[in-house]
Amino acid sequence: EKQLAAAMPYNPTKAGEYGDAARTPSEGAHNQPSTPAATGSTSTEIVMSDKVGNGQPPNGENRTTAPLDRVRVDAGNQVLTTNQGVPIADNQNSLKIGLRGPTAMEDFILREKITHFDHERIPERVVHARGSAAHGFFESYGDYTDLTRAVPLAEKGKRTPVFVRFSTVAGERGSTDTARDVRGFAVKFYTEQGNWDLVGNNIPVFFIQDAMKFPDLVHAAKPEPHHGMPQAATAHDTFWDFASLSPEITHMLMWAMSDRAIPRSYRTMQGFGVHTFRLINAQGESRFVKFHWTPLQGTHSLVWDEAVRISGADSDFHRRDLWEAIEGGNFPQWELGLQIFTEEQAASFPFDILDSTKLVPEELVPVTPVGRMVLDRNPDNFFAETEQVAFCTAHIIPGIDFSNDPLLQGRNHSYLDTQISRLGGANFHEIPINTPIVQIQNNQRDGMHRQAIARGRVSYEPNSLGGGCPFQAGRMGFTSFPEAFNNVDKVRGKPELFAEHYGQARLFYQSQSPAEQTHIANAFRFELSRVQTLAVRQRVLAQLANVDAGLVAKVAEGLGLDVPEALPRVNDTPIPAYEPSPSLSLLARPGQTGIRTRRVAILVANGVDGDAVRALYADLLKDGAVPRLVGNMLGKVKTSGGDALDVEISLEAGPSVMYDAVIVADGGADLLARNAQAIDFLREQYRHCKPILVLGNGANLLTKAMIPQTLPDGSADPSLLVDGTLDAFKEALASHRSFDRETDPPMV
Ligand code: HDE
């Protein structure tokens, strides 16, 4: 039976039969979803069998993949052909004049193959080049037609297919996933009224206020142009030079230096639309809105030392995590929340809602949940889907409109424009992943790579020869909100409130837990330690002096510098004082999925108590965790009971940073204690504040690793369990990390 299970392709719908439900699939596995979703569910629980896809969804509810079916290719049982469909007899040898002679120009098969290969690459995205994506659906909690005509929110239980791409910003396409960076969070809704793209980030504010500065920001952050270094990192002079001369960046720096910039997983990040948008209802009434995505998995991050090591151990860490969660049937979910406010409310705020360096505190305007998003299907082909997907902030549908945020206005131009060079022409909307689920009808014609075969002689409007078609939709169609403008000059400039840069930076820093504040200070210290120009370091300190005296003192001390005079402010209006906002802390959202998908290493060696390990393993699996038997080497370890356990991964191939927690099993620890990799493993788990369960003679490894058994303040360490229970371990694992252990510098 076991052999049969191993031979079967991984498939969560078969998981029941093989008792293997929560295991992540084997490397590279991709199941072809075949069971349509249960429909109409409004439950926010993760539904394991809730698989959609294959192009034949019930009630037309998931049409994301249906239009793609036309172009899906499966080579099973098929003969190899050229691009013209000619069957190929020999794909191993080129055509030669004699076995040892020159290759014939005539070999059209060779030339076609090589020519295509030569042109396989397209330009990568100028920002957000590195990304990973998945299909899924959005489901509305109710009927929100009083707020908006946007069809995804029109009725309770209504499902709209989505394709979501997460990304880092600065790194190139092959760069590491765990760089300290902002993450993109771009959602394409395929609605009956066309595609709506909500192209957001995992941070609710941005670096700059006006699109005019974007190329400068990106040039400063990217590898320095003379030597092309560093990759995927802002820890270099040009970024901090720009930052220190741009006080508007200060609020964003707080977020970008916080743990938000090193998420544990794409699944544990919030998402934000960042700009203020408008919602417009059928009566033409407008309200302002900010979009929030909140993960049911909770908000969890890495620690910096861990992020750095993961870059070496698995630079695809986030890509793999998302892929495996979905293949294993653990479909990540986010709740969509709206902050809705009127023009009058906006006018009373101490900041300008058109300024993307400001957020609307939840204390001012609460977040109202309106739906959930479930990602339940991996792409079939990375290039065709994840790489070719083209998001654009200007892709909006009736019921949504822009605000005058000057950053958003600039983006509305940039995204369409960039696709033309990236995807090779103006017809990128015809690439299957970008095509709306509704038929496109207009008089645009021709261009590179045109797919549609438009029939008839009419490609203009007005026409009588085509019966006037396609005709304007009138009130059914998209109409812009008729915002009034009176007595305004055409100017280059910004509103006065845009000039206040420190109130919300202070709000963010002061709303963080002590551990998070320490991480922010340490991130500044790290980044500025890499900066070579002293004046730049000092200017950043002067900027921080406007934020928080404790923060600047800590960073200055870390750099061996004195705290300088605060940077002069643009005007002398007082910095607005905000109430602390606890929801700005990552710890405010532990999540609802417990230990599901958390990776647990069980360290084993010869002499291990096999029965105890099997029981632990099964118990963790039952709760959806991902246990792995980690040993000195691959192969079998002999148990104390005389049978054997299969080591799943070696300490060398699966180092500590790949796991959220560790169990040192009883029996094999003396052997493990002779391997420095096992000692390092345990020390890193400790340093990264992860739960540790040590059983029986596992305590010897703990001693060998010189791990203190109490917290620095002398109290008991609730996530270091020596001969503790599995329940206590699971509780610690559910709360992710215990930062009480942290010292700076680390003691272990
Ligand atoms: Fe982008 N941004 N951006 N950006 N951005 C791009 O579009 C740009 C901004 C964001 O997964 C590019 O298709 C300008 C804010 C995401 O494919 C480009 C400005 C936010 C993605 C571009 C901004 C974002 C992009 C590069 C300032 C958060 C990846 C490739 C005016 C709300 C989407 C592409 C994906 C990608 C321009 C600022 C998020 C060049 C000019 C603010 C998530 O068009």
Summarize the entry for a quick read.
The chain is α/β, with parallel strands linked by helices and 748 residues long. Helix content is 25%, strand content 14%.
CATH architecture of the largest domain: Beta Barrel
Query: How many distinct folded domains?
Result: 4
Residue ranges: pLDDT <50 for 5 or more in a row? 4-19, 34-62
- Profile the largest sheet: 10 strands, antiparallel
Helix content estimate: 25-40%
Give the assembly state of these chains.
single chain
Bound compounds, each kind once, are: CIS-heme D hydroxychlorin gamma-spirolactone 17R, 18S
CATH class of the largest domain, named: Mainly Beta
E-strand count: 18
Walkthrough of the structure:
The structure is a single chain. With 748 residues, the chain is an alpha/beta fold. The chain contains 21 helices and 18 strands. The protein has helices at 2-7, 15-18, 66-69, 108-118, 214-221, 237-244, 250-256, 304-313, 317-327, 343-348, 382-387, 406-422, 503-510, 514-530, 534-544, 549-559, 610-622, 669-672, 676-687, 698-704, 726-734, and strands at 131-140, 159-168, 183-191, 194-201, 271-272, 277-280, 286-295, 333-341, 368-377, 400-402, 599-603, 626-631, 635-638, 644-647, 649-650, 661-664, 692-694, 720-722. The strands form three sheets. Strands 1, 2, 3, 4, 5, 6, 7, 8, 9 and 10 form a ten-stranded antiparallel sheet that branches. It has a six-stranded parallel sheet with strand order 15-12-11-16-17-18, sandwiched between helices. The chain has a two-stranded antiparallel ribbon with strand order 13-14. A hairpin with a 2-residue loop joins strand 3 (183-191) and strand 4. The longest helix is centred in the middle third of the chain and has 17 residues, at 406-422. The relative contact order is 0.10. The structure holds CIS-heme D hydroxychlorin gamma-spirolactone 17R, 18S. CIS-heme D hydroxychlorin gamma-spirolactone 17R, 18S (HDE) binds next to strand 2, strand 3, strand 4 and helix 12.
